[in-house]
Amino acid sequence: MEYLGRVIGRSVRHLRFRAFYGMEFQLGEILVIEDEERGRRLLARVIDIEYGADAPGDDWWERTAGNMMQGDGKGGFEMRERERRLFEVGACTPLGFVDGGTFRKPKVLVPHFSKVRRAEEADFAFLTEKMGDIEAGLLRSGDRKVPIRVGISGEAFPHHIGVFATTGMGKSNLMKTLAASAMRCGRYGMLVLDPHGEYFAGAPGCKGLSHVPEAAERMVVFSSRSLPGAHNTIKISAHEIKVEDLLNLQEYSDAQREALHALSAAFGNEWMIQAHTHESEELVEMLHKSFFLESINVIKRRIKRIMDSGKVTRDREVSMTRTVIDALKSAKVVLVDTGSMPEHEELLVSTVLARAVLENYQRVYERPEDFKFLPPALITMEEAQRVLGTSKGTIFSRIAREGRKFKVGLCAISQQPKLIDNQVISQFNTLFILGLADKRDRDILRDASKQDISDLENEIQTLMVGEALVTSPFVPFALPLAVYKFEDYLDEMSASQKGKKQKAGPDKGFY
Ligand SMILES: Nc1ncnc2c1ncn2[C@@H]1O[C@H](COP(=O)(O)OP(=O)(O)OP(=O)(O)O)[C@@H](O)[C@H]1O
Ligand SMILES: [Mg+2]
Fold first, then answer.
1. Which of 47, 214, 317, 389 could pair with 218 as two cysteines, CB 3.0-4.6 Å apart?
2. Segment 299-340, tens digit of pLDDT
3. The ligand 1 atom nearest the CA atom of 382
4. Is CATH 3.40.50.300 the right assignment for the domain spanning 147-233+320-500?
5. Architecture category of domain 3-73+81-128 in CATH
6. Whether the CB of 171 sits within 6 Å of ligand 1
């Protein structure tokens, strides 16, 4: 048990302790303060570290530094009793009391001069039962890893997730880890939209979801390009595209909007095919001359662009949405690799799929007996600020607002949370906050977080690649997390799978 120092003040929300000379502790480290009078422990997080000295007079620091500088090059200056007089002061936020197996919010003071020590694995045992079945990494104390697994419950998927970090801090690595864990767990659906085309095989030097041992059984892949492994081709039937999908993606004037609705009313799910097939003049006739030729021309031009993309077919038998929904309902991971597609096509495919999933789950909701057994689904979107700039408008912001009731969650991944609408961001119950350089981004997350992280500004600023804080109403405090490196997590999965297989066979030497 590493004894660090003793409490010297200051209030119930803000503790300070004096540490022994030379005793190193870090920003973000979780320490234990022993309440010996009541036989319980207080966990506290270091939020700042200051210099301290038993010094006579206010100008002692300046005088001593001056003496040292005078002595430099002349044999030095020997400070007397350095180890007794110099120390560090840790400023801490109390997290809560651990009393037996229970954890309580810190509402009372610990006794004066209580002992402070470094936390050990056993101090965090109470957290184990609160960790969900979707693993993300290990508990972190400063930059030290504590062998306690940190994860979230898949049941929390419909409460929406935000993953935020500056570029290169480990968002995609975290997403691959969560997806691999979902495959291993096999209880939840996950639709992974991958506009960078980096998840299947992994970026050069990295591994991808195709390397997950369970991928063959638990992952369905769609792509518009050739991938090094089994996959389906992205192909949406024109019958699966609704007017609202186009309205979600492009600006239309009121007149064009009305014309679109009129086409949908006249032709049902054939509306796009009919609009593509007929000349503008014919369509005006078919819609009883209620619309100007110019409006119809604009609509036709846009539809032609979609039909010419090669991603949309006139064949009504082709149904990518059906396959995706079936896989999600069987608790599989569906990877849609749109890496080679221009943004307008990528967003069309993503929008149609997300809308189809939400609508389908809404229909199941009407049948409570079936709904009970429907696995929650999480739709993950990279560069989510593109589609979440306003609370109204896209299917993704609609899912953030309405998905919870129907077991459909959104996982928004972004480098710039400040570009996401405030109301949308407040819907994310779980936040994974990785290193974020921009203060405005951090401020937004501080306000949106379900736990008070206002004291953690210093820690968030010093997060290294793969280090994160997880906030959610399901954990007792903002949890410091060291996300698994995906490749290491895979190795561990393979090892534990081998272990399982060996165990499953008859015990050698048993007979
Ligand atoms: N938890 C981790 N442990 C070790 N290395 C990591 C971890 N997370 C990420 N890395 C490494 O850091 C690099 C960048 O990670 P990643 O691609 O996940 O970042 P990103 O936030 O998605 O970046 P971008 O914004 O460019 O998409 C990768 O080489 C990855 O292997
Ligand atoms: Mg990335």
1. 214
2. 999 999 999 998 999 998 888 999 999 999 999 999 999 998
3. 27
4. yes
5. Beta Barrel (2.40)
6. yes
